[in-house]
Amino acid sequence: MEIKLDPSRDDLPLMANTSHMLVKHYVLDLEVDFESRIIEGTIVLFFEDGSRFRKQTSSTKETCQLASNKAYKFRTPELCHIPVTNARTTFNVGYSDFVICDKGEEDTSDKDGNHDNQEQASGISSSKYCCDTENHGREDFLLVLDCCDLSVLKVEEVDVAAVPGIEKFIRPSKLTTVSEELRNEIVHELVTLPAVHWRKQLDYFVRCSQAPSCGELFFDTDTWSLQIRKTGAQTATDFPHAIRISYKTKPEGQSVTWTSDQSGRPCVYTMGSPINNRALFPCQEPPVAMSTWQATVRAAASFVVLMSGENSAKPTQLHEGCSSWHYYVTMPMPASTFTIAVGCWTEVVPKKWSSNDLMIERPFPLSETDCRYVGVCSHMEYPCRFQNAAATTQKVIPHRVFAPGCLKGVCQEILLRLLPPCLSAAHSVLGSHPFSRLDILIVPANFSSLGMASPHIIFLSQSTLTGRSHLCGPRLCHEIAHTWFGLAIGARDWTEEWLSEGFATHLEDVFWAEAQQLAPHDAEEQRELRACLRWHRLRDELRNSPEEMQVLRPSKEKTGHVSDSGASVVKHGLNPEKNFMQVHYLKGYFLLRFLARRLGDKTYFSFLRKFVHKFHGQLILSQDFLQMLLENIPEEKRPDLSVENIFQDWLESSGIPKPLQGARPPGADCGLVRRVDAEVTKWMRLNQRPRKRRRREEEEVFEKLLPDQLVLLLEHLLEEKTLSRPTLQTLQRTYCLHEQDAEALGLTLQKLMSEQTACKWMSKTPSAKSWHGDVPEPLQSSV
Q1: pLDDT at residue 93 above 80?
Q2: How far apart are CA 492 and CA 750, in angstroms?
Q3: pLDDT of residue 123
Q4: Is 400 helix (H, G, I), strand (E, B) or coil?
Q5: Per-residue confidence (pLDDT) for residue 95, from 0 to 100
Q6: Any idea where the Peptidase M1 membrane alanine aminopeptidase domain is (predicted)?
């Protein structure tokens, strides 16, 4: 299978050759320097080769070798210590199944085509480029990792056989001679230890990561990847299965953002970059490369390090002014889900602790003595909470909240109160929490989204705190839903984002209604009102976006396919418009709403719990969900439903899905929506009156609206060509728009003011600063 990659297009390349070798575990040892805005250290990768996890075919064997006949130039290991000031090379990767097209690419390289991330300091044991005159590179296996904007300093093989006590992993007959085969056998035994021995496994991963080098490896980098080879290692089986990479990030790297928090103190965090984590550490980006990790991070003692980790890490003082933090995970997940945030965060605790608070905070860790199996799982082996009887009944997992000091009060008042009921609601709907604990961080003001979920940690925008509980609650429920859909169950093909965002959007309403303990009628009214809002947004987005960006399954029958080496592309992955589009959220939501109504809520959510239990810890495609769902629908309820029909009507077409065309719009029978319609009529009458007649006529009496009703009202008003200045001022007086949440303010900014005025007003929105009661000039009352 040949994949053509044109860097001038907006597709994101996934370069790692995961069909040949898979990373099973990462050990990171990093230091954060805020003065230089660099993260520097080492990462050790532990691999399994393709012969271990799939039968090696003849085509795979061919692609394990470089196919081109050109002479390759690698950075060559040197025994001496020399400064490298201007090392250059030309490197061309020749995959038989992965073609890079240069046409139209902006030239960001040196004149000789080098993309080598060369920065190295004098005195560091370094490597320089030299021509491999014997041309061994043509026959040697090439390991390819995803890598961008990193300065790679050294790559070396790790001598895991030198670790004291490691002999217990090897049969006595193999201990006579230390060889590549022996080292790889040690790594294999280590990565395949039974889950019950996870503590021992993590301990030996650390010991092996600190083992001495047994030789440096040839390496080179280009725009998107790091390529590594060892002379004489012609297949993945022969290649070292434990390698250590010394590197440092670049200040301009797109995976992390260096900024200041709301208190003006420096911080750095991963903010969900389109290129994921490849500018944070060399890794395998394709989702199939599910791995565990552990990381030690050093920073100045005044900083707090938060990370995707199962443990609630505490700092260890290394020396005066410097602390170390250590995190780990034992559930294999894609490297793209790794998240880190370093800043002067303040932990927010309740003003008063009650006995109930302490009771629900008790964790249920998995251990050899406590683990009681309650079901059979289908995923690769790891210490799974679904197999722990105590964990399955834990409604509220241990949680912490961190924020800049200036936001501590509002977090105590709003966020801390919402977490227990939202977590409990999620458990009541879907069952066992996949992760044992949760941190929430209020991220800096430049965060471009309302929230982002990663294993064991959620980033929330400060904007969610401005609308009291009605905005923070649903957003918190949305991110908690990603614990199941997006993290515990991931998409095997990243173009199928609806499998994450559609599910989270559909579940947020269910979780939020449960968290509020609403009566069934009130819960249905609230869900219908929010469905009506989403219907307006979907129609607007489909009118104003390219058709090719509206398709939920753009690769159609090729979805999930990769090249023979495992390399692939994410369609439109680098398109800047994608960050502002909600089509995967909205069309995915309406598909799931359609299916839930066809089955009935009780049947649908009962099925969803079964689906979660079967597929947690795994990657899925759309058909995995749809096929299992249809198997659970009685024949009389699915005469026109099939996987093929759903693909055609919902996932592989642009525009409004066929089943929604001509159907009654969401909210048609909702009392909350009808009340908004009545208020819209009043505002239209007011807006159409001549200004001179207004004072002589009886003033309109406007009803008080719920926050979501106000947003729907503004959605309707946005459809009008013009709104007069007096109408805007009356809107401000009636609804105190300056006190509303970011969602209502954003809608107001979108059309109720001119572009120039909006720019002046934007600096006062909660996404940039607190409002502090300032009313935008166009909404101020005037004679």
Answers
A1: no
A2: 36
A3: 27
A4: strand
A5: 35
A6: 433-650
* Rounded Cα–Cα distance for residues 675 and 632 (Å): 38
Name the DSSP class of 778: G
pLDDT tens-digit readout, 473-515: 999 999 999 999 999 999 999 999 999 999 999 999 999 999 9
Residues annotated as part of the active site: 479
Assigned token pair, 397: 């997992």
Tell me the three state secondary structure of residue 399: strand
Dihedral over Cα of 707, 709, 715, 718: its sign: negative
Q: How many CB atoms lie within 10 A of CB 641?
A: 18
Show the beta-strand stretches assigned E in 636-709.
none
Closest to 601 in 3D by CA, of 609, 426, 322: 609
| Cα 753 from Cα 759, distance rounded (Å) | 10
pLDDT tens digit string along 526-546?
A: 999 999 999 999 999 999 999
Residues 372-427 pLDDT 10s: 334 678 999 999 999 988 999 999 999 999 999 999 999 999 999 999 999 999 99
Render the burial of 566-581: b for 16+ CB within 10 Å, e for the rest.
Answer: bbbbbbbbebeebeeb
Beta strands, E only, 364-450: 399-403, 438-442
Helix axes 469-481, 498-516, angle to 10 degrees: 130
Amino acid sitting at position 160: V
Q: Using CA atoms, how far apart are residues 362 and 402, in angstroms rounded to an integer?
A: 19
Q: What is the 3-class SS of 332-373, one letter each residue?
A: EEEHHHCCEEEECCEEECCCCCCHHHHHHCCCCCCCCCCCCC
In this structure, the number of other CB atoms found within 10 A of the CB of residue 215 comes to: 12
Closest CA to 184 of 220, 120, 117, 233: 233
Angle, helix 707-718 to helix 520-543, in steps of 10 degrees: 30
pLDDT at 576: 84
Q: How far is CA 527 from CA 1, 515, 518, 524, in A?
A: 46, 13, 11, 5
Q: What burial letters (b/e) apply to 607-619, b meaning 16+ CB within 10 Å?
A: bbeebbbbbbbbb
DSSP per residue, 292-310: EEEEEEEEETT-EEEES-S
